[in-house]
Amino acid sequence: MDDRIGRLRHKHHNIKPRSAAAQDGSNIKLLDCDLGIENHVTNIKSHSAAAQDGSNIKLIECGLDIENHITPEILDEIQNVGNVYRLSAPMGHVDSHAPVSSLVNCLEASHMEEPDIKMNKEMSGQGGAKDHESSKDSSKNVMPTDYFSKEPTCNSNVQKLACTIGDVLIVDDLFAARSVVDKLQGEYRHHVHACDTEVADIDVKKESPVGHGRVICFSIYCGPNTDFGNGKTCIWVDVMDSNAELLGVFKSYFEDPSIKKVWHNYSFDRHVLANHGITPAGLYADTMQLARLWHSGRKGTGGSYSLESLTSDIEAMNGVHKWDRKTLMKKTSMMDLFGTYKIKKDGTQGSIKFIPPVEELQTSEALRDKWICYSAGDALCTWRLWESLHGQLSKRHWIFQDKVQGSMYTFYDKYWRPFGELLVEMEGHGMLVDRPYLAEIEKVACKEREISIQRFRRWVGEHCCYANYINVTSDAQIRQLLFGGFYGVEMCRSFKVPNIDGYIEEGKKAPLKYRSINICGIGKKLPCDLFTSGGLPAVSMQALRNLAGKVSVDYLTADDEEPFIPGEADAILTSAGAQGSQKLDDLHQEDLSAYGQAYSAFGGGHEGKEACRAIAALCEVSAIDTLISGFIQPLQGGDIIGPDNRVHCSLNLNTETGRLSARRPNLQLELRLLAHLANCKSMLEAFKIGGDFHSRTAMNMYDNVKKAVDRGDVLLEWEPKEGEDVPPAPLLKDVFASERRKAKMLNFSIAYGKTARGLSKDWKVSLKDAQATVDLWYKDRHEVRDWQEMQKMNARSMHCVHTLLGRARHFPRVSGSEFMSGRIERAAINTPVQGSAADVAMLAMLELWRNKELKELGWKLLLQVHDEMILEGPSDNAPYAKDLVVKAMSHPFDGKNILRVDLAVEAKYAKNWYAAK
DNA sequence: TATAGGCGCGCC
DNA sequence: AAAGGGCGCGCCTATA
């Protein structure tokens, strides 16, 4: 099936499982476990070797004792490359294999990427055999020139395809089907089989393949050294309509776990086949995941990991076996093959292409052959892509725990292949959702939303005649209204909005669907301290809150009786006094300090309050919107609910750092991993002691805070004990609130590579002051700085960094100035942290999934959301299952915990998600 | 009128 | 010159 699905389905990723209530009568409970990574100190040390490209000397110069770790294979590779890698140890950390892994990647890069860069140039230019000759000696991967010809050598559409109709055995009767299955499961059972289905009755943009879609044909290719009759190597099976029974003939084949099957985006095909009662087994590889592991940062439109995109990519196909390259053809898209222009009424050709329904392609006499080639070509391309990526990943060393564990293909076999199966199972299993309950919630939320909108419009109406037309969810319109005329926002601007009350424009007879309105600034200069990256005043929740203050929306009583005293508030606020506010509070039993910056901007008093309340109402709308569109609606959407009435998410591994796109890693976890990766003594200790991490950070940053803590003047944190209702001393977070706030900000920012420059902008302090604060943070965390410098150096010299498990993220080779922009440096710092968090979460999931006892007890992994796992199972054995889960999760490294310190796991069980929280 | 890309935002 | 990572969504604009 077309692989665009992987990309188009991303709508479902956003499902926020947090709101899902699994309810299944009385028998189901959720086990909710927090995976907290305790401060496991391991001997993985931050390495400090940097390799730089030198010139033509074969030399490894190295201040570290790394030779011992270099395997003969690696040495062989090093010596086969005529470049120099100079390893130095600027920072004093030694004893690490990271340099080796970096070196290996660097070496690979040298004989994989460089030649390709040249060849790419040739392709865009004249491209000839001569040019290739010249680059031959620098590369052992020089390919025949015809491999690079992007344009097919003949004009017929059919021959543009990866195979021709003559290569394809068309199976459309029982006899042929049985004979093919016999060969597949007999003679060719040890081959690698690439499979692909074509599916009708599904809208991949909207629907989950779980419970949607019908297979109309499929194709199988198991390598060039096969013959299914008359030298035909591709199999194409028609299972549409009257041929539907043929699918059943292949059931045993698809379900045979001993046959190695390769798919591109396995998830889709597997779910669709499941709709026909077939449970495919024997997953050998998913080429989409292989490609993600091979290179995590593919960009571009049309689905960077689509079969089409990958098979068109010279680098991706670089590992295809030599004798295949000559005949290699990329997959051609459906649009290119079958897209036709609509003919307009006047007979001219339109500009919009459309593709006939797949059933039509298959039955139309004119198109059928082309369709068969297209479909069969998918299996062929998948097979070749697998061959290529298998070859390439097999050449990359996988280094983990200071040892070469095998190749990155070993990594795939060990982790991502089973993880892929696990994810597909989770998707298929889905989650029972209390839809009536959600519907009720939605009703209430919408009602409150409407009230808040009205509240806001009422206020807008005093300043703008289009109050009813304004789209309150449009940041552009809100920005125009609040800041028009200031901060570089023009005074007035027109917007196209739905014509809700049938306004008829001048000169028109009937109302149009849309009309334009002119939104002007309210004319008061509101203070603004937050700006968007584009330099415009921000209208984010935080920005709005600054304006509104902490006031509640106060829907019903808009304090109409409140006497309006002009100037009153100005006096109060400019005296900026706690006393001033206090006085007023006494007068009105109201805390005026709750009002935000809009209060005085509107002259205080009634106007000021109204402005604050209106803006607060806007905040309310925004909050409700995130709730509704974030999860209340997606969880009820018919498109993801299968016939089993369960919600089926789409879980993708398709992110740069390797985390699931449906999941949201918890920052604390990431901070812990940073502590671990950098082997930062101070942070590890802070986590070990527990308590308020940010307060502790503040204490370590500021001497006066530390002294106050030491003297017992303030408490780092306080847990009420029996008989105590007041802390024996004030808390740090109250006394040194601003210090703690800064510490907290830094804790969250540093892991992402935020610079002093960025902080100075945020805090509106000088660069120098910001830098000083950052330095304070690093004061007792110098290991973090060293580690970050290491990562940056690796990114610069090796063009990649690694996660805990040894997955690489590659960076493009860019010029020095581009590198200096910092984007890559920041990613280099962040990826090991985010990516390692993803690694650990994956390991924990695999551990649970593989646990036989849990399976026998009837417990299934439902979802994983940030650092939590959610399982579902029978309540009678829940306490026991909980213990099993804790045990499994605290030993996520193949049933062991290779870390020096325990992984702390908290687990709870409850009837549903809400109860667990 | 449909679609793609840019931007701003919320979330972790 | 800019300097916070990645992701998904909704709005807006340009384009055909």
TrEMBL record:
GO terms for molecular function: 3'-5' exonuclease activity; DNA binding; DNA-directed DNA polymerase activity. GO terms for biological process: DNA-templated DNA replication; double-strand break repair. Residues 658-877 form the DNA-directed DNA polymerase family A palm domain. Residues 129-139 have a biased composition (Basic and acidic residues). The keyword Ion transport does not apply. Residues 7-16 have a biased composition (Basic residues). It comes from the Eukaryota. One of its GO terms (cellular component) is chloroplast. Residues 1-21, 120-142 are annotated as: Disordered. InterPro entries: 3'-5'_exonuclease_dom, DNA-dir_DNA_pol_A_palm_dom, DNA/RNA_pol_sf, DNA_polymerase_A, RNaseH-like_sf, RNaseH_sf. It catalyses: DNA(n) + a 2'-deoxyribonucleoside 5'-triphosphate = DNA(n+1) + diphosphate. Coiled coil: none annotated. Keywords: DNA damage, DNA repair, DNA replication, DNA-binding, DNA-directed DNA polymerase, Exonuclease, Hydrolase, Nuclease, Nucleotidyltransferase, Transferase, Transit peptide. Belongs to the DNA polymerase type-A family. This is DNA-directed DNA polymerase. It comes from Ceratopteris richardii.
